[in-house]
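Researcher: Here's a chain I'd like modeled. Treat it as a single chain, no partners, no ligands.
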Amino acid sequence: MQPINNYVLLKPAVDTSVVSTKFGNIYLDNTYNPEQFTPIVFEVLSVPRRLNYSLAIDHTGYMEWHTEMELQVGDLVWTYTLASLKATRIDKNYLIPYNQLVVAKRGEQIIPINGYLLLEPITESPALTSMLIILEDKGTELKERGVVRYMGTPNSCYNKEGWHDQVDVHEGDTVILRKMAYSKVETSPFHQKLGNYLVCQRKDIFALCGGVS
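Model: Modeled as a single isolated chain. Structure tokens:
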């Protein structure tokens, strides 16, 4: 099957309806909280021949930024929960727009796509009030802040005035992000194949600051 209009054909990399144990398989009721069980990690089956970009806002079938196709058949790729829930289903496979995909993994290589960065959250140390707190509290992740760990190719342009990826940022930099401009790559236990990372695009970096490198 050859997808068009920026769609990528994917199959789930993890069966989130079953957990394998040494005693056998446990089948889960995923109707209670579908957001927790919906697959967000996929294997790439087929990609469009080209990506279509448009200057028009909300133009159906076109992307709101210009980027190159970076996926290959066989890659693992991560998407957002909402994109997975809204995906077109063909048997057990999914059709998801390319611009809803965040990061790929090819062997041991981690490749952020669509201009995204992966950030390691910065954790604030717990208050040193007692040994019990030190043992139990691993600290609080600071909001809108992280250390750049993986960088993809910048998007060349956006269809919204003022948006751009011309930001002088490097791996190891500590950055401050615009509010609500980031999310976690993985959340539920079924999706923990990559690590504890925030994801954002370069356009959403507000400032650089000192900190952990």
